[in-house]
TrEMBL record:
Secretion signal, residue range per the UniProt entry: 1-19
The name this protein goes by in its record: Uncharacterized protein
Entry's transmembrane regions: 51-68, 80-101, 113-137, 157-182, 194-215
UniProt source species: Dendrothele bispora (strain CBS 962.96)
Keyword vocabulary terms for this entry: Membrane, Signal, Transmembrane, Transmembrane helix
Length: 281
């Protein structure tokens, strides 16, 4: 879905540039024909951006959602955050469409930037905090069960740390977006405009980068400490099974030895009794 929106954004952006080229020629076309086309493309470009932003939030919420399959409170919190993001995105695009239709040169204001960025930042912060809590709980569980038996982080913990780091980076992108939107004051800024231009692309490739990074971490071989720990557990299990087998075999031999001894003793007693009894003549 994000790929479709990104391709649509790219196609409309190219068309937006092509339509404006004749306007700079020696004999420009009638503005009454060009302005409606450019207005529609501006609305379409901003709509694709906002849809990508919302889908990016869905991905962030999903990462935290799957870590708490049995926690209704967590799922309710994430659902409320996602609903807030949807409302913020919808309100922002509605205000932007209204402004563009009234004024062709309208580019938004600080209020619209706050309406868009704050719900998205809050949703990302909540999801990343929940993932961090899950990672902390995982570490405490390992230390409680294994103590100091292992010194290196497990593969699950490494993946969760990767999700936390990526969530913080994504959060930093949105904080930068908010700061730039609040400090521009209608004055063109090359750095700010460049960041705002690449923001839709960053949001689009963010889930792909996370999937590739997690897959790369998941395909890594186990560390030496993890292998030694697992080998120790398997060795202890093998020793326990060998001990049980040896104990059962020794127990069976002893049970078989006692009847044999009793049979031999009985034979000896019977033999003695036969020798003692005198013969009758």
């Amino acid at each position: 879905m994000m790929l479709f929106f990104s391709l649509s954004y790219l196609v409309m952006n190219i068309e937006f540039a092509i339509i404006q080229i004749p306007s700079f020629s020696y004999n420009p076309p009638d503005s009454k024909e060009v302005i409606p086309l450019i207005t529609g493309l501006k609305i379409g470009l901003n709509l694709m951006d906002r849809l990508n932003y919302f889908i990016g939030d869905i991905v962030v919420v999903w990462r935290a959602w799957v870590l708490f399959p049995q926690r209704l409170a967590v799922k309710t919190t994430l659902s409320i955050c996602l609903l807030g993001s949807f409302v913020g995105v919808s309100l922002d695009i509605g205000l932007l469409i209204k402004g563009v239709l009234e004024n062709f040169f309208y580019t938004g204001n600080k209020t619209e930037g706050l309406v868009l960025a704050i719900p998205l930042i809050f949703t990302n912060f909540t999801a990343t905090a929940l993932i961090g809590f899950k990672a902390w709980y995982h570490v405490q569980s390992i230390q409680r069960n294994l103590g100091s038996a292992t010194t290196s982080p497990s593969k699950v913990l490494k993946i969760m740390l990767l999700l936390i780091e990526s969530g913080l980076l994504y959060l930093a992108f949105w904080i930068g977006y908010l700061v730039i939107g609040l400090t521009q004051d209608g004055i063109p800024n090359v750095a700010g405009e460049s960041f705002l231009s690449i923001m839709p692309g960053l949001v689009a490739i963010y889930p792909i980068i996370i999937i590739l990074a997690v897959a790369h971490e998941n395909n890594k071989p186990e560390s030496v400490n993890d292998m030694s720990l697992s080998q120790s557990i398997r060795f202890a299990s093998a020793q326990a099974s060998q001990f049980e087998d040896h104990h059962s075999e020794s127990g069976g031999e002893s049970q078989l030895a006692f009847p044999a001894a009793s049979i031999n003793n009985t034979a000896e007693v019977e033999g003695n009794e036969i020798d003692v009894v005198p013969r009758l003549s």
